[in-house]
Amino acid sequence: MKSVSSHGCLRGFGVGVLVAAAVVDVLDTGAAGHRVWPVALVLLTGLAAVLWPAARRPPWLTPELRTAVPGALSALLTVGSLVSGARYLFGPGEVMVLLCLLFIAVRHCSPRWAAACGLLDAVALLATPVRYAGSLSDGNALAFIAIGLVLVGLTAGLASYLRSLDYRRTVAVGETRRAERLAIAADLHDFVAHHVTGILVQTQVARMMAATGSGELDPVLAGIERAATEALASMRRTVGVLRDTGPEPDRRPVGDLAAITELTDGFPAPGQKVTLDRAPGLDTEVPHEVQAAAFRVVQEALTNVRRHAGDATEIAVTLYRAGDRLEVTVSDDGHGSARLPDAAHGGGFGLVGLTERVTALGGTLDAGPRAAGGWMVRALFPLGKG
């Protein structure tokens, strides 16, 4: 609150100084016996361009228009004084307004117009002493031009630096949003694809049982209902990441080592068996981000078993600590006989996403056929020195 009020006081002080300097220019012009309205027109136009609140600024009042019109009026006043022989004073108000316009042009105008608008304001500023001296060769005019060049350089340099910071911030925000979109896409793939694939497998089993009249359909339908409920819950959790309001979200990772037990218990289709071998004490030893990555390794590997190894009967999941690393393996005895339609096989992005997740934590991921037949996925995560 204090910083906001301080910023408002500084802004109000700057506005007051700018307006006071403009009033001094008008008073000096009138006291010298010159016509006041040309100087007042330039100053009023410049003050409106600089001080018009952004919230009330009409869409047509672009930075290019705001900086070009006052600068052009100032330059026209200088040219008019030379042509007519009239002498007009220039004061601190017009100098400050033109410097502000130069700053706005360099920082906020589009790249195509920033240089042109900035150059117009700079030339208008450097030419102002000609109104009184009548020539650029006058010593006082040359002295002011030298000082003006320094002021123009400092103003343009500061505006360019801030413009570069704005650009970097825009790029950083864009990269952050892109990373968030990729993370959300990965979450949708990891969780929803897993459950939907399970629904598809169990639906095929139900159709087969209905066609042959063998077995009870109720357990299979219950499994489909459970998988659909879990898919909807996963989607709600993923969409919840995008919300800025509401109660404080649960900070527990969506998937961890404890959730792997639930994952393996709910995975097997008829004729399949999943065994989980997990070393004790891992829940307290493994960081949460590693637990979440390990969960997704197991989840993606089991999903790929459903997609590509529908004939697998034995699936083994192991988690244990080997020195300062966590090793996660998922192996099956399938031969690649999948009953799923081609459209359900996926595009091969699952392992790519897994590799990115694992390597981001300093680990490694290997996937390939087993010597005894089947397939194995193996991930190693560094845990630090134990």
Overview of this protein structure:
- This protein is an alpha+beta fold and 386 residues long.
- Among the domains are: 2-136, no CATH class; 255-386, 2-Layer Sandwich (Heat Shock Protein 90).
- The chain has twelve helices and five strands.
- The chain has helices at residues 2-31, 37-51, 63-84, 92-108, 111-127, 130-133, 139-212, 217-240, 257-265, 282-285, 288-308, 349-360, and strands spanning 273-278, 314-322, 325-332, 364-369, 375-382.
- It has a five-stranded mixed β-sheet.
- The radius of gyration is 36 Å and the shape is rod-shaped.
- Residues 1-5, 244-253 and 340-349 have low confidence and may be disordered.
What's a quick, concise take on this entry?
With 386 residues, the protein is an alpha+beta fold.
